Every structure is written in structure tokens, then in C-alpha cells.
Amino acid sequence: MRFLAVLLLVLLPCQPGFLPAQPPPQTWRLVLAGETSLVAEATSRGYAAFPVSALLSLGAQLAYGGGEVTARFGGREIRFRVDSPGVVADGRPLMMGNPVYAADGVVFIPAEFLSTVLPQALGGAVSVDADARVVWAHPAAQAAAPAPPAPAVSLPAPPQQRRLVVIDAGHGGVDPGAVGPAGTREKDINLQMARRVVEILRQDPTLDVRLTRNRDTLIALRDRARFANAWRAEGQPALFMSIHCNAHPSRAETGFETFFLSEARTADARRVQQMEDAAEQYEERSTARTPLDFIMSDLRQNQYLRESSAWAQLIQDRLRQIHPGPNRGVKQAGFAVLVGAFMPAVLVEIGFISNRGEEQLLLDPAFQDRTARQLATSVHDFFRATEGRNAQAGN
Q1: Nearest CA-CA partner of 252 in 336, 358, 97
Q2: Residue 313: which region, alpha, beta or left (left: phi > 0; alpha: psi -120 to 50)?
Q3: What is the pTM of this model?
Q4: What's the rounded Cα separation, in Å, for the pair 312 and 332?
Q5: Do the Cβ atoms of 114 and 28 come closer than 8 Å?
Q6: Closest CA to 110 of 242, 33, 217
Q7: Does residue 95 sit within a domain?
Q8: Would you say 64 and 35 are in contact if contact means Cβ atoms under 8 Å apart?
């Protein structure tokens, strides 16, 4: 039976539906009491992950419920939630670079859980050689380790006193986005710009600034908003900005525009929406949602439409001060990346990568810095305006 369980873990990531362009999966060796189990990494989401059931080979006891998985190693407890990168180890919050996810009824956890999180959580109970992909579990150390008292911790737990700003770099991994005449990939420009915006915003100690991705990896469009929701504490002011480069069949098109979530009202808005949502072709399909799910999502998001529209206008006002292209204005579209973000959310197209001149402009570090500073300033503009309206309402 043990051989069959190990064989299943090895073969599971190789089932149909995984991207053929991915490199061959790497294999981890999990060693407990002299017995070795093999588990192959799954890479269908653009990052290495493994079935959570593999933790059984390290002596864990697993419990499932309410979208949360609890792994117990002796007296130690580790909890993580599907669609969240957060982990709680004996009451201590930890954060991974990628989220836990479920596919075809199997829960997958990022491989960095083995290389980074597990040693932090269990200390001497495990030894890890990340380069060789080997984990040794020490049952005696697990049994002897006392469990510290676990305070109430939510998953995850950002500081409530700060305002949350989530910056999303569009596309990534196997999804390059649009490609310019000189071969520039949109995903690279988006990430460079997002990192610079975050760098600027983090100079403000009143902000809790997060990136949905900080490297070249694929993250499902609808998972990005879920990250933002998970990072947001109850009642915490929050914003979500997705950064992209535009493209058009006509290489003559130039300029900048900002979208907020609503039904697309023009043919051009529908074109941009279809172009950006095409990234879903690289993703696994998630479980179907019920009509009630859509109704509740719409009700929760509608309250942010006016604020999203106002913020989009502030962004356009800032970009027109430094962008040589035409101001294409604020537009509406039902972008998948914005669906489900329960906070003011916008998608900004900073220029046309399909235009040879603007492609070179987007590659210019000086232009990137000016644009990033204007995008960061629009965040402060929004919070100042919101605080001003709240102060007037209180008088």
C-alpha cells in the first residue's frame, strides 16, 4: 500500500491538463525513520508545488475543513488555507511567495513550504537540503517539541493600523502578455514597473504594500484579487492596482488609459478586456460558482465602483503630466483580474507596447521611474481625498 501511495504522488502531476511547455518536474525525497518517499513537483500554476498528502510521509497528521488544512507534527501545528499564501505555525503567521491551491479535488502547497516554511515551523524536527531536494524528519524531535500557546491569528494578518495597497504586475510565467515589435515582453515591463511603484510606496510607513507576484511566475487572474482580499484586515482601507501595457493591431495606436470594473461600454474597451482576459488560457479551470456566489460578489463589489472610477481619474490626471502619448481617458470593462476585489480596484494601461516608439519609451528607466512615481502619487491622492470626504461627512 505504501508503494502505491508513493507511486500516486509521483504520477499525479503528470496527468493530462498540465501545460506541455513546462520543464520536467523535479522530485523531492522525504525521509522518515529510514524510509524514503518520492514526491514530484507540479508546475501547472507556474511555480513548483506538491500534493499536501505528501506530508503524511514526514509523519504529519492531516485534517481538512472549511477550505483550511491543518498539519500536525507531534506537538506542533501548521495551518494553511486554499487560495492563500499565508501559513500559521503554532500561532505565528508566515508568508509564502505563492498560494496554496486546489485542483481536481487535490490540495497543492508551494514547494517552498518544504524548503523554507517547514524548517522555520519545526526547527530541529526536520533537516532540509533544498538544493538536493531532500527532507529528513526526526520523529523524536517532533514528539519532544512542546507546542507554545497559540494566540488567535487570522490568515493572513496584515497590520490593521496601516492602509493596504496591492500592486499587481500583469501576466507572467508562461503568459508573456503582448510582445512589442522589438520583442519586448509585456510581463517584464509590468513587473519592473510594479516593483518600482512598490519601492516608492514602501517609503510611507502608513502603508502596507504588497505585490501579487515579485518574480516571473504565472498567477491565475482571479487568484490575484483573492490575495488582496486575504491580505486585507477587517475594516482596513485598501486599494488594488493592476499594471499592464496595451497593444493594438494598428501599430500607430499610442497613449494611456485606466479601467475600472463594470460592463464594457465601447468596442475598444471590449477589445482590451478580451486581450487581458486571454491570460486565462494558461490557467487551470477552477470549480464552478453558484448563482448565489455571483450575486453576493456583485453586491460587495458595487459599493466600490464609484471609488474605483474616482481613483482611475486621479491616475489619468497624474499620467498626463509626464506621458507624451494621448490621454485615452477612464473606461469601464469586466476584467477578470478585477472581479472579486472587494476594494477600489483599477487596471492601468501605461502605454502601447505594440507601437515601436512607445515600446522604447516603456523600456526607458527614466520613463519607468516617472510613471511609477505618478502611479504612487495617485495612491496618496486617493487616500487624501477619501479622508477629506470622511472628515466632511463627520461634521
Answers
A1: 358
A2: alpha
A3: 0.56
A4: 10
A5: yes
A6: 217
A7: yes
A8: no
Task: For residues 232 and 235, give the distance between their C-alpha atoms in angstroms, rounded to a whole number.
Answer: 8
Residue with cell 490557467: 283
- Cβ pair 357, 251 in contact under 8 A: no
CA dist 395 and 91 (Å) reads 42
Sign of the C-alpha dihedral computed for residues 31, 36, 42 and 46 taken in this order: positive
What would the mean pLDDT of 199-208 be, rounded to a whole number?
93
At 277, which CATH number? 3.40.630.40
Domain housing 30: 2-144
Write the single-letter amino acid at 180. Answer: G
Residue 194 maps to a domain: yes
Measured in whole angstroms, how far is the alpha carbon of residue 341 from the centre of its chain? 12
Residue of 36, 272, 14, 63 whose CA lies nearest to 134:
36
78 and 110 fall within a common domain: yes
pLDDT tens track for 318-367: 999 999 999 999 988 667 767 778 889 999 999 999 999 999 999 999 99
Give the tens place of pLDDT for each residue, 74-132: 778 888 888 888 888 888 888 888 898 887 667 888 988 888 888 888 877 788 888 88
The 101-103 sheet, strands edge to edge: 49-51, 106-110, 101-103
pLDDT grade, residue 25 (50/70/90)?
A: low
Give the residues across from 95 on adjacent strands: 86
Residue 155 within a domain: no
Q: Is 234 buried (19+), middle (13-18) or exposed (0-12) by CB count in 10 A?
A: exposed
SS3 state at 127: strand
Domain termination site, one of 114, 144, 174:
144
CA angle in degrees (0–180, nearest 5) for 91-96-98? 140
Longest dimension (CA), the chain: 71
> How does DSSP classify residue 175?
B
Q: Answer whether residue 287 shows pLDDT above 60.
A: no
Same domain, 93 and 174: no
* Whether the bond into 139 is cis, omega within 30 of 0: no
Within a domain: residue 154? no
Query: Mean pLDDT over residues 267-273, rounded?
Result: 56
- Other beta carbons within 10 Å of 285: 10
Q: Which helix (DSSP H) or strand (DSSP E) does residue 102 occupy?
A: strand 101-103
C-alpha cell at 61: 497528521
| Cα pseudo-dihedral 195, 201, 206, 208, rounded to 10 | -20
